[in-house]
Amino acid sequence: MRKRFSVLLPAAGLLLIAAGAAGFDQFQSGSYGSTKTPSLRQTVPPQLSRDGNFSVAPFPSLAPELAEGEGRAETQSFCSDCHSTRYITMQPPLPAATWDAEVNKMIKTFGAEIPDATAKKIASYLQQYYTPENRKP
Amino acid sequence: MEPWRGDLSRRDALKLLGGAGGLAIGEWSPAGAIFAQQPQVSKESEPFTGPGSNPHWNSVGPYVSEPQKAPLILLTDRPVQLETPRSYFQSAFTPNDAFYVRWHLSQIPNRVDLAEWKLKIEGHVNKPQTLSLPDLMEKFKPVSLTAVNQCSGNSRSRFQPRVAGGQWGNGAMGNAMWTGVGLRELLDAAGIKQGSVQVQFQGLETGSGPTGSGSNVFLKSLELSDSALDEAVVAYLMNGEPLPMLNGFPVRLVVPGYFATYWMKCLTWIRVLSAPDENFWMKTGYRVPDTPRGNTTPEEMKAGGVKTVPISRMPVRSFLISPDGSYKIPAGMPVTLRGIAFSGYGKIVKVEISEDGAKTWRAAQLGEDHGAYSFRTWEAQWAPKAPGSYTVAVRATDEKGRVQPDEPVWNPGGYLWNRIEKQEIVVGKASGGESR
């Protein structure tokens, strides 16, 4: 077995730091500064019954923050009847005419019950915050 | 040299001390060598892309943990739409817990009671059937096949101009071995009546829209004369395991070669029709221009009169999976390019790669053949000599002679994307010399 000289480590470390300052640039290490990387918690396995019911936990609800502005409340309330407002924030910036068409499609094709005035307000909200001209990250 | 270890042998320690003492480091680190760069800053994805094309391989949503799933990329939470991250495509089979998810309507099952659940075969038939899961598993001969399930809108975020809809990157696809009962066998058991034209599929998914509307019920139909039905399977196993709830437990329809819109999840009603299905999801949704590649333009659409047909088979596609461009490759290092290819029209017979942005091509090696409708893995050796930025491209050819084109496609639904994929890969200097 080889002898260990761990007592020399601090001295060697100091010398290396000195060497680094003198232009030792083969590598760089020990950078742990990032606190921004988000983490995702693990889940534990559920309790399972022996009966014929096969079930899973509720699916997570992750409604996004919509842009602050006139018409936001109506948009949240009416659009959320059928789907998450992530359908809005997921879209690329869409031209004003496309937002008109989308609101129309929800009413005429999919039967969303939205009063005319409210539909106008929702379309104009989407056009105010979700087009190529005005969409913000 | 390695970074600090916990303890060193006397010889190592002395060597280090001697070396550092004399600052004899020129041999490792010639003047001008570049390692002392600032550390990289890791940036979070933007919450959306556009109005240009999404430049990333996947879509840009956050990771999310859903029941029975590994962390996947969130498109929407209600109904659930999740995309599979690129690295899962390194193997031919996509793990169930990483398999992408796409539902249309918000009321999707959290619970199925198998004591009650039955598959119904009804409509224009002589002997309507009501089959429990054990009936399906025991009364019929199990068949297995491997097939790619790909969303019609996979890669929609590539479209220019962008179109509304699920903004998928490339990860709305997966490959699995499916085991179940041949659809024709079930139809034969029910006895199709003379004069039947289509067969309709319905699962347990519903929405809060008005009865009969597209926002209330999701229904898809296929022509009874379609040869795809001969290969279709009502599957109760996915990669040898029960289907995850989000992928259609207890059974889903598998239509090899066809886009996933027909692969009804939580399949519960098989309905033989004596007249063509006119419901929203056939008559309006999931239709493509009746043109080569389903291509049209916004101008033609505005002018009107573009004839459309229901979407059907998947055009040939291929992908580079690794390296993924997120790290540099040292010049001269012989790395392995890896990826997958598939086609809804049959077996992949050739995959080619290009290192110069689709100008010149050479053949890649094909991996194991798991069947005509499966992912086919491929790999190719690549030892880039000089530092620089390389555009690696990949294209596949199927047995029908269909080759991926380098032109984009555009249609209002954002369907049928199969342009040649390209990946920028940066090669860095591997030594201090001039040559590399």
Task: Report on this structure.
The complex is a heterodimer of chains A (137) and B (436). With 137 residues, chain A is an all-alpha fold. Chain A has a domain at 72-129: Cytochrome c-like domain (Cytochrome Bc1 Complex, Chain D, domain 2), CATH 1.10.760. Chain A has helices spanning 9-21, 72-79, 86-89, 96-108, 116-129, and one strand spanning 53-55. In chain A, helix 4 packs antiparallel against helix 5. Chain B folds into two domains: 63-285, Alpha-Beta Complex (Sulfite Oxidase, Chain A, domain 2), CATH 3.90.420.10; 317-428, Immunoglobulin-like (Sandwich), CATH 2.60.40.650. Helices cover 9% and strands 30% of the residues of chain B. Chain B has helices at 10-22, 133-138, 183-190, 228-231, 280-283, 298-303; strands at 63-64, 72-76, 81-83, 101-102, 111-113, 119-123, 129-131, 143-150, 173-182, 198-206, 217-223, 233-238, 252-254, 269-273, 287-289, 308-310, 317-322, 329-330, 335-342, 348-354, 362-363, 365-366, 376-382, 388-398, 421-428. In chain B, the strands form six sheets. A five-stranded mixed sheet of chain B has the order 7-6-14-10-11. In chain B, strands 18-25-24-20-21 form a five-stranded mixed sheet, with no helix packed on it. A four-stranded antiparallel sheet of chain B has the order 1-2-3-4, with no helix packed on it. The longest helix of chain B has 13 residues, at 10-22. Chains A and B meet through helix 1, strand 1 and helix 3 of A and helix 1, strand 1, strand 2 and strand 5 of B.
What is the CA-based Rg of chain A, rounded?
28 Å
How confident is the prediction overall: mean pLDDT of chain B? Answer: 92
CATH architecture of the largest domain in chain B: Alpha-Beta Complex
CATH class of the largest domain in chain B reads: Alpha Beta
Alpha-carbon distance between the termini of chain B? 21 Å
